[in-house]
Design goal:
The structure holds two protein chains of two kinds. By secondary structure, chain A is an alpha/beta fold. In chain A, 36% of the residues lie in helices and 24% in strands. In chain A, strands 5-6-7-3-8-9 form a six-stranded mixed β-sheet, sandwiched between helices. In chain A, strands 11-12-10-13 form a four-stranded antiparallel β-sheet, with helices on one face. In chain A, strand 1 (2-11) and strand 2 (14-24) form a beta hairpin. By secondary structure, chain B is mostly helical. Chain B contains eleven helices and no strands. In chain B, helix 2 crosses helix 6 (139-172). The longest helix of chain B has 34 residues, at 139-172. The radius of gyration of chain B is 27 Å and the shape is globular. The two termini of chain B are 32 Å apart. The chains are: A alpha/beta, B mainly alpha. Chains A and B meet through helix 2, helix 3, helix 4 and helix 6 of A and helix 1, helix 2, helix 4 and helix 5 of B. Chain B: The chain crosses the membrane at residues 64-86, 98-121, 142-171, 191-211, 218-237, 275-293. Chain B: Keywords: Membrane, Transmembrane, Transmembrane helix. Chain B: GO terms for molecular function: ABC-type transporter activity.
Chain lengths: 332, 298
Amino acid sequence: MIELEGLTKRYGEKLAVNRLTFTVRPGMVTGFLGPNGAGKSTTMRMMLGLDRPTAGDVRIDGQHYDGLRDPLKYIGALLDAKGMHGGRSAFNHLLCLAQSNGIPKSRVHEVLDTVGLTAVARKKAKGFSLGMGQRLGIAGALLGDPRILMFDEPVNGLDPEGIHWIRTLMKSLAAQGRTVFVSSHLMSEMALTADHLVVIGQGRLLADTSMADFIRQNSRSYVRIRSPQPEQLLDALSGAGIIAVRAVDGALEVDGGKPEHIGELAAQHQVALHELSPQQASLEEAFMRLTAESVEYHAHSGPPGAGRPDAVTPDAVTPASRQGWGSDWKKG
Amino acid sequence: MSTPQPPMPQQAAPQPSMPPQQAAPNWQAAPAPSYTSPIPIVRTHLGHALSSEWTKIRSVRSTMWTLGVFVLLVVGIGLAAGAAVSSSSPDLSGENPLSLGFFGLLLGSMCIITLGVLTTASEYGTGMIRTTMTACPSRGRVLAAKAIVFFVVAFVITVVSAAFVGFAQVAMLDGTGADEPTGDDWLKGTVGIGLYIALLGLLSLIVGSLVRHSAGAITIMIGTVLAPLVIAMFMFSESLSDLRDALFEYSIPNQLSVFYDNSLSRSGPSGWDPLWIILGVTAVAFVAAYALLEKRDV
């Protein structure tokens, strides 16, 4: 379990991380999502005691990171694929990490086997592809068989096979009861792996919610209609009590409408239709909307909550609503 | 051991037909499924950091290169100087034959400086430092382990090289009237010079930790070794003569030569003074580096 309490990091004028408070729980994959530059990596570095917080606190199983006696057995982290000396072989890289935590040498062979690098164990890391470097980094994270794992953008630069491997690995690690915390700037990636979601933008917490709730609240379905007679169609729709909105390209959009119903309505009023299609807004769009609004909220200092997205604000997620976290979304 | 081999059966595998409430992970109902590793818990100490740093220093090629070139310079130049002097058969009465090793060691010290800087600064260049500090959050322990491992390596290599060259030179100069080195001469020419050069390397390691940039730190250190002497050479003005003498006397090459009792000047450091000077400077730098390491972000 990782607990953040008002964690803040300031670089000169810029607030990179702004009073983050959330908890990463065991037994599930927690996705840490935010656009580039949102403060994800800074937050992770503070969790690992690499950067000193300007204010606030972060605890790993109740302890500060630098209070951990053998940190690799508590928490394994993959920060970036370059966190190694290129001139050192994969085996020696892992060996020096193992020695610093009193981990037996046999464990080095095991993790090399787990990530599939046994054949190149004696090769220098600088000859590794990005994917191999990422695997070596993950081997380092698994070295101490820790109960908490932290991955910063683990699928970056990986081929589809590697991405699939990491997804399966993260889920199985969480299924063993470990805490898995993984950052990404890709909502689509998180939707496939994460059970819980923490979204930040400009260093601020935007959402702390279960993946299922996020999907439920953000998957907007609507009907898209194009017609050469938009005015007549709008009249017909409003006559039936249906509210249509003009989209940017001139098409009309009806939230939650049924295409059959709208098509029949158009036929009754003899309006020609060029398009009538049910649409599902992607999670990626929902994520972009969420983070874009955070930026907007930041720019105008309107009343709190004025420009905020619907119910995914951190305040809206009360402990009570956390009780029923669903995970059936994963079947999709 | 227990590292998962994907795919794994999931305990809380979602059932497609179940409503979310029932399919929710049962971490609240059951006792928290916190994972327990079968790897025994060890209270880590400096010894672990030392073995880790030893693995690091021996597993990169730059160590072999810098130390190889160091031995080559010290032994090569030392033997060449011995051969040149003995063949021209001058009268060397009253001279300390060990002093012929001076030039090789002066040039060789550049290699030790480079290795010292790389021991710390290369970790910042490669990003390895984040991995290191994550594995050992006690930053002081990391710096101490690096310092000890490097110091021992540099000291042993320097003493062995200097001793080998010393024996060879004494043998080569046999019959030129040069003095037989006394026990004190031997002590200063091997252990003394070994401590001095290893401390110079340790100072480089500390500068590497402060500057965090290999090329920058190497430049600073080579400047520190050479600049005072070069600057002093160009101080012609009479009014600056005191400063010029001080720069000469306390320049690192001159301090190095004090170990052979053939200082360029009569005043200034003598005997074991250079060792105490560099020991003091290195200690101050170490404290500064430690304080800054604790304060700064990695």
